[in-house]
Amino acid sequence: MVDRLANSEANTRRISIVENCFGAAGQPLTIPGRVLIGEGVLTKLCRKKPKARQFFLFNDILVYGNIVIQKKKYNKQHIIPLENVTIDSIQDEGDLRNGWLIKTPTKSFAVYAATATEKSEWMNHINKCVSDLLSKSGKTPSNEHAAVWVPDSEATVCMRCQKAKFTPVNRRHHCRKCGFVVCGPCSEKRFLLPSQSSKPVRICDFCYDLLSTGEMTACQSTKSDSYSQSPKSSLNDVSDDDDDEDSSD
């Protein structure tokens, strides 16, 4: 079915509409063979609080952006190649229901659908697109994924030293390797994580010691791996303390 739609006028028109909704700031989305599979609003767990984001699933990429005018205009376009994506279901807890993790080497975050049926459809379609892409390319699924950031609200003190209390002056930082919320003194070091940035990024002392000695796998016990215990985990991205209202999303 995807192959039949690839060169259809209806598919070209639908993709063109999505492009126009993002305006000149968005990247072009129309390429030969690309098909728009579906779209919808999902709740994305951001660093400060959950926020609605418009998602578009194509047969090779996942695109999302901030909703400026419903169904008419979006900004801060993000494009995620599906070949790098793995997804994991999240257990329902409290008001956060029908969720799953979207994990890639550069960025990992949680999203929630309005209903269990919608969640199932999204996950099935994403898995099918990823499977088809990997089958065609002969590649294997990525085993590496970026940490899911622990939300600011879950840490009143540094998660490493367990002493430093966070205040308007003593700000929270996030380790790019484990996703923990840490104080400045516990995260003064930087380390090159090529999958996340071309420049060294902030990491906590614990992860720095492990990375420096080559024990990288020991640093993988992150919040994303025990997500069912704390489903409010948030996103990770390149800037130190930016919320998703700016370029970091």
From TrEMBL:
Single biological process term from Gene Ontology: protein transport
Region: Disordered, residue numbers: 220-249
GO cellular component, one term: endoplasmic reticulum
Annotated ranges, domain FYVE-type: 152-212
Subcellular location: Early endosome membrane; Endoplasmic reticulum
Pfam families: FYVE (PF01363), PH (PF00169)
SUPFAM superfamilies from the UniProt entry: FYVE/PHD zinc finger (SSF57903), PH domain-like (SSF50729)
Gene Ontology molecular function, alphabetical: phosphatidylinositol binding; zinc ion binding
Biased composition (Acidic residues): 238-249
Family matches, as InterPro entries: PH-like_dom_sf, PH_domain, PH_domain-containing_F, PH_Phafin, PLEKHF2_FYVE, Znf_FYVE, Znf_FYVE-rel, Znf_FYVE_PHD
UniProt KW keywords: Endoplasmic reticulum, Endosome, Membrane, Metal-binding, Protein transport, Transport, Zinc, Zinc-finger
Membrane-topology annotation of the record: Peripheral membrane protein
Signal peptide: none
Domain of life where this protein originates: Eukaryota
Record field: compositional bias (Low complexity): 220-237
Domain PH: 35-131
Protein's job: May play a role in early endosome fusion upstream of RAB5, hence regulating receptor trafficking and fluid-phase transport. Enhances cellular sensitivity to TNF-induced apoptosis.
Protein known as: Pleckstrin homology domain-containing family F member 2
